[in-house]
Amino acid sequence: MGIRLGCIADDFTGATDLANNLVRAGMRVVQTINTPAEPPSGLAADAVVVALKSRTIPAADAVAQSLEALAWLRAAGAEQICFKYCSTFDSTSDGNIGPVAEALLDALGADFTVAAPAFPDNGRTVYKGHLFVGDELLSESGMRDHPLTPMTDANLVRVLQAQSRGKVGLVDHAVVAAGPDAVRERFSALRADGVSLSIVDSLTTGDLVRIGPALAELPLVTGGSGIALGLPANWGITPSAEAASLPAASGRAAILSGSVSTATNGQVQRAIRAGVPSFAVEPLRIAAGEPVVAEALAFADRHLSAGPVLVYSTAAPEAVRSVQERLGASEAGALVEHALAEVARGLIEREVRRLVVAGGETSGAVVQALGVDQLRIGAQIDPGVPWCAAALPGGETLHITLKSGNFGTPDFFTKAWESLR
Ligand SMILES: Nc1ncnc2c1ncn2[C@@H]1O[C@H](COP(=O)(O)OP(=O)(O)OP(=O)(O)O)[C@@H](O)[C@H]1O
Ligand SMILES: O=C(O)[C@@H](O)C(=O)CO
Question: What pTM does this model have?
Answer without folding.
Answer: 0.89
